[in-house]
Amino acid sequence: MTGRDDTATTAGVKALLTSGVVTACLYAQRPQDRPCCEAVGVVRYGPTTLCADCDRRRSAVGKGMAPVRLPDPSALLEVIAAQHACRHADIALRHAVSSARRAGQPWSAIGAVLGTTRQAAQQRFNEPVVATDPLTPDQHAQPASPGPNRRR
Fold it and tell me: Would 59 be classed as within a structural domain?
């Protein structure tokens, strides 16, 4: 674990813990005792699991017991970050295709730049863009304007 406390890492740690794939550190729910706890366990002493930071700071926990190293959760955090990036990239691509269509670009041109056929591009991107994972927070603040053929 890198020790970074940014939003993406925090969300990734929460996803790992709720998935049940990793075990939480003993101090994860007690930030008053260990404010630098990384939450995800990397070593186990009997029934007690500790993150790397809490393992470095431990005093009596696990003394006399052999540590059992757990798989490094960093690789799983990378998978979560890559999945998140793919979602954002897909939304950005859908927005770009919608913009190209509004600018008058034909499906054949869009297909050509995507390395696919006109029909494949149209089948993939002809649906309206649904912002389930917005690119910017202010997108929700802007009311959607009705199209030229729609009534209010």
Answer: yes
